[in-house]
Amino acid sequence: MRKELPEIVRADEWAPLVIRTDYTDDDAWREIVAALERAVEGERGWEAAVHLVEDRRWEGATGDEALAAAARDEELSVVFLADDVTMRSPLRPLLALDLGADDDEDLDPAYYQELIDSPPPREVRVAPDAVHMVHANLQLANVDFPEFVEDAAADPDGVVRDVTAAPASPGPLPHPGP
């Protein structure tokens, strides 16, 4: 039986929606919130707004339950969950759920049987510093959700990361010799 989750009312469609569904580690949650709200560094230099839902009625909500509740917002393309995996992993990867996958429900089998038989993935793990990038690209339809799934598959930890973030310095290069 699905539990009835509260309605989500967002004021800004450009702010990613992050729902806390695990309440086992408040320190981990504070770390995630800090990473999400941190101003983006570098040339972009804009304030990183995020819509946080911290309501114990969401505790233990499944991905399907969150999708059903979030789908009420027709402008929303993706929702991020801070679930038990997020709280336990040192990377704090949020679970991104694709709301656009429901657009495929009314496909004509005469033309789209392959897509019906093998639907695209509708979830992927996203590092907190990549949440804004994933959300914005999906909102603008610059990138399709399966492309982020491919990015995560290429990552050693299976996580989408912000490719625009400044890379860590590799340190001094070895001297080639005489």
Q: Indicate the overall shape.
A: globular
Low-pLDDT parts are 166-178
How much β-strand is present in the residues? Answer: 5-15%
Strands, count: 6
User: Biggest sheet, in brief?
Assistant: 6 strands, mixed
Query: What Rg is obtained from the alpha carbons, in whole angstroms?
Result: 18 Å
> What letter string, H or E per element, gives the SSE order?
EHEHEHEHEHHE
CA-to-CA gap between the ends?
73 Å
Residue-averaged pLDDT = 80
Number of helices: 6
State the helicity in percent bands: 25-40%
Side-by-side strand order of the widest sheet: 2-1-3-4-5-6
Structural class: alpha/beta
Tell me what you see in this structure.
The chain is α/β, with parallel strands linked by helices. 30% of the residues lie in helices and 13% in strands. The protein has six helices and six strands, in the order E-H-E-H-E-H-E-H-E-H-H-E. A six-stranded mixed beta sheet has the order 2-1-3-4-5-6, with helices on both faces. The longest helix has 12 residues, at 26-37. The N and C termini lie far apart (73 Å).
Primary descriptors:
single chain, 178 residues, alpha/beta, six-stranded mixed sheet, 6 helices, 6 strands, 30% helix, globular, disordered C terminus
Short recap of the structure:
This protein has six helices and six strands; from the N terminus they run E-H-E-H-E-H-E-H-E-H-H-E. It is of the alpha/beta class.
